[in-house]
Design brief:
Length: 466
């Protein structure tokens, strides 16, 4: 049986705007006193009218552009009708027919994953379960939410994870949300079904309540296994187009059936009568595009053009502020220098939290120019100290006597003394040249660690061969 998983992901991202989507309430709700950020609009009281948040709409477009989408110049909001205690109005204002952004894509390891749409909507309130009671907190009700829907192009749980990491990275780069899965400002719902033997399809399952990246992967793997087992049991029901909604139980690590056969018709979508169509002119969209920073893929390509490896380029681009530090130090294509700086940034400097303001590019350059006279350990120590004390690295190296003795004459003198003082080691060397380590150690010690080890070895070999 050939099983090809077909996985899509719906990602909800809370935008970090100051106010909510359709009212002026404070949109921050993490750890806020329950029901303190509310008003008649976000509590759904009769007669209250929504006013769309312009910045949220612009950020939704910005996110769409960052995901390579086309932007619909004219859009409108719709009502999605359903009852749930945390949805005070009994409908959610969202977009179905005309999302802000459509037809984008992102690439994971050369594999293209389509972004079908990114639309604007509002978050619901939160049900808090305490003992046998359920309490409602409406601080989150009406917080701007962008839903990003991928095409069913993802092939494995691992790829789903990489896709989510990439989406999160892009969102953080453009600064519209912290996209924190643990805090709930980014939430993911995988949809999974299987193509079997290139001809049969299992019913599509949409999985809810997955609260972590590991949960997403576990839920997908569970569904792949469950659906293939189910297919073997009832494969007379071929080419099913059924859709089910399943919940994720993180404790038991399994999904369970919640609802069957539910389509958009069940939500009786209709245009929101209280909000006129939203129009963005091409000039306005261009102006939003102009605010986009250099995106992760652009950074990675740029670093690779500097001769850096895939691994190094990804490490540098991983976090926007980290890549900005690199960009401040390395301003042009200079492969040797780029590699030198990369090794320091993802090496010793990665162990402390560095701030871009405290970085002096000139210090890196000075150290680079003198690198042949310093051991790699010394370079690491110097750059750390230079960063922490804002001192010239060359001054530090001089003070601490870290420059290696590369003066052959001086080294020959030391080496000769070592040879004269260690006749047994010399005899050992004559029998086994590999035992030079002992003599080399003595030379290094006699020079106070300042000898260039390579040169010291050459000098010793030369003197011993006479
Ligand atoms: Zn409000």
């Amino acid at each position: 049986m050939k099983i090809t998983p077909i996985i899509g992901l719906e990602v909800h991202v809370e935008l970090a705007t100051k106010s909510k989507m359709f009212c002026g309430c404070d949109a921050s709700h993490f750890h806020a006193e329950p029901n303190t950020h509310t008003c008649p609009v976000c509590l759904g009281l009769p007669g209250a009218l929504p006013v769309p948040n312009k910045v949220a709409c612009e950020w939704c477009i910005k996110l769409g552009l960052a995901l390579g989408c086309s932007i619909n110049q004219e859009t409108f909001f719709e009502r999605k009708n359903y009852f749930y205690p945390d949805l005070a109005k009994s409908y959610q204002i969202t977009q179905l027919q005309k999302p802000f952004a459509i037809n984008g894509k992102i690439t994971i390891n050369g594999h293209e994953i389509r972004i079908n749409r990114a639309h604007m909507e509002e978050d619901t309130g939160k049900s808090v379960h305490v003992n046998d009671s359920t309490l409602l907190d409406f601080n989150r009700s009406g917080v701007p939410l962008v839903e990003i829907v991928s095409g069913p192009d993802i092939k494995s749980a691992e790829e789903a994870k990489e896709y989510l990491n990439k989406i999160q990275q892009i969102i953080r780069y453009i600064g519209v949300s912290d996209a924190d899965i643990e805090k709930g400002s980014m939430r993911c719902e995988p949809t999974v079904n299987l193509c079997i033997d290139d001809q049969y399809y299992t019913p599509l399952a949409e999985i809810k309540n997955v609260a972590s990246l590991t949960g997403v992967m576990n839920a997908i793997n569970y569904e792949i296994k469950r659906q293939s087992e189910q297919f073997e049991i009832d494969h007379q029901e071929k080419n099913s187009t059924n859709k089910t909604t399943r919940g994720w139980n993180a404790e038991k690590s399994e999904t369970f059936l919640q609802r069957e056969k539910e389509g958009s018709a069940d939500y009786r979508y209709f245009p929101e009568p209280d909000i006129p169509p939203i129009i963005f002119t091409p000039e306005q969209i261009e102006a939003i595009k102009a605010t986009l920073p250099e995106l992760p893929d652009d950074k990675i390509n740029k670093y690779k053009s500097y001769g850096l490896s895939d691994y190094d380029a990804n490490q540098l681009a991983d976090d926007k502020s980290f890549s900005e530090i690199f960009d401040k130090i390395v301003t042009q294509n200079d492969p040797g220098y780029a590699k030198f700086v990369t090794n320091l940034l993802i090496g010793p400097l990665k162990t402390i939290s560095i701030e871009i303001e405290k970085i002096n590019p000139e210090y890196f350059k000075k150290l680079f120019d003198k690198k042949s006279e310093l051991s790699s350990t010394a370079i690491k120590d110097i750059i750390l100290e230079s960063y922490q004390t804002n001192q010239d690295p060359i001054a530090i190296a001089t003070q601490k006597n870290l420059f290696q003795v590369s003066d052959t004459g001086a080294l020959e003198k030391i080496a000769q003394q070592v040879i004269d003082a260690n006749p047994k080691a010399v005899a050992d060397y004559q029998k086994n040249p590999l035992s030079i380590g002992f003599l080399l150690g003595q030379v290094m010690r006699a020079s106070g660690g300042s000898a260039n080890p390579q040169l010291a070895k050459e000098v010793l070999e030369k003197l011993l061969s006479i």
